[in-house]
Amino acid sequence: MTRSKEFKEQLAFLVREGTSGRLDAVRGTKRKADVLREAVERELQRLEQAGEVAGLGKSG
């Protein structure tokens, strides 16, 4: 029996040159996907708490 996947949505995006190396330098023993997933979640929570929408800030 297989367990249900915790993460069901998939995103693909390009990053600036050198980003992969920077990620490798800070991720330690974590998988890249886990580090990216955590970073995206933290930033989304920060933006939601600040009331920011589409990078426009609180003033809209």
Helix-strand blueprint:
Blueprint: H1 19-26, H2 32-50
Explain what the structure shows.
- With 60 residues, this protein is an all-alpha fold.
- The chain contains two helices and no strands.
- The longest helix has 19 residues, at 32-50.
- The model has no long low-confidence stretch (mean pLDDT 87).
Taken from the alpha-carbon principal axes, the silhouette is extended
Unreliable stretches: none
The rounded Rg comes to 15 Å
N-to-C series of helices and strands: HH
Oligomeric state of the chains? single chain
Q: Helix count?
A: 2
State the end-to-end CA separation.
Answer: 48 Å
- Main structural class: mainly alpha
Mean pLDDT: 87
Residues in β-strands, percent? under 5%
Helix content: 40-55%
Number of DSSP-assigned strands: 0
Biggest sheet, in brief? none
Structure at a glance:
The protein has 60 residues and is mainly α.
List keywords for this structure.
60 residues, 2 helices, mainly alpha
